Amino acid sequence: MNIKKIILAFAASAMLAGGCTSLDMDPVSDITDLNYWKTPEQFDSFVFGLHSRFRSHSWNMFLLGEARSDVFGGIPFGGEATQGMERFPYNTLNAENPGISGFGDLYQNINQMNLFISRTLHTDVLTESARNYYLGQVYGLRAYYMYQLYRSWGDVVFTEEPSLGFEVGKLAKAATPAAEIFEQVKKDIESSLSYFGSDYTIKEKKSLWSKAATLMLKADVYLWSAHRNGGEGDARTAKNALVDIQNNISRSNLDLMDTYQGVFAYDNKGNKEIIFTIHNELFEYNLWNGNNDLFPQADYLGKFYNADGTLINTSVENNFGIMRLMVKLENFKKFLPGDTRRDVTLKDVYNKVENGKLELVGVYPHKYWGVMNGSTRVRCDDYPIYRYSDLLLMLAEAKVLLGEDPATEINRVRRRAFGDAYDASTVGFPNQEVDKHPADAVLQERLFEFMLEGKRWYDLRRFGDSYVLDYTPAESARLLWPINQGALTNNPLLKQTVGY
Length: 500
Known about the structure:
- The chain is mainly alpha-helical.
- It has 19 helices and six strands.
- It has a two-stranded antiparallel ribbon. It has a two-stranded antiparallel ribbon with strand order 2-3. Strands 4-5 form a two-stranded antiparallel sheet.
- A hairpin with a 5-residue loop joins strand 2 (346-352) and strand 3.
- The two termini are 42 Å apart.
- InterPro entries: SusD_RagB_dom, TPR-like_helical_dom_sf.
């Protein structure tokens, strides 16, 4: 995102500032709104503004998608107080301790999407092709946001009307049933695809929504329903969406990177594996809004050891924070020998016990390595939402549901993961022990491939409640999230999530 567009995006965001409702929808004054929408550049900057706000929501989206899963758990090895964040992996959230308040602030952007759609549908400022592409993007973005809300809270408020001027006090509204929200997500997906038409262009180093992103979302949504009552019909719809991407974007523009580490390299943003990513940049924006709750402190890290018995050099391992949420040790141990994803994803930390042997005491994220700014490491890596390996593994998932062979897709991912150590007879599908149950094989592969990308909790939920209960301490009545008391107070028509 170049500097001019950053400034325009923030200008658009500033235009949308104002009071807020119980849903944190930013209203737009009638006067300001009438002075906008006069030029193509204003529409363009507004779309950049929507993506900028998407970026500001990335930490909450990460928590919603992963924090309650089996990725995390245990006491931070440096002894930090978890300050309530242990409630995520232990699944002890409740009405008094909801973990995330105000629906993760997601309604802020939904309101702006509603505004953009209403103005763009009736403008004569834009060319038809520009208008259609913008609408394809924003209907897709709104579907993505509503899908987060659906998977997290079930029944949620939905309105297509933007909040304008002094209508804020009239926005108290009862939640729409979850089934209707799910149908709205599907409706927005189809609107997005219709407006995109045959345009598969992906712009700005893949940091802007595209038709391929909408098709990835469609596959995700229909796999969700295929695991429930949608059956083979929805699984086939998901498969067709993924094959559509493969058929219309060449492998020179969209394929697996040669190495797993190359996917996340700071100097290789928007690489050929990426379909849609949240863009971060040094001096522009840091990963997850600069949140550092997953990383150790500099004060103690240098007292621990590497796997080779040497003390950790904190001038090299200088990705610091204050750890409130620790990755489970067993996740490091789950990777098979030779799987390069382990050491790209996680850094292992050891203590020396009395006999001089090393004891694994902690692991923390290594996937987002950032870049040096003088003597300080800054986490400003891009945060991928969809990439080609996700396409392959969702395609494998659809094939399993259809009774087809998922070997081609699973083995493409495994072959890249093991590199020169790949031996089809031992680690290729169907030769691992987990492969006796193909659905479990896909789910495990997704854990290894997407750990720390905000997908694991949603993956467990998509595969079915039994998976959530098997892999986490969650209760069957509390798989959704509680609503914070402030939201309930401000909107008396809202009801607390069932189970809380």
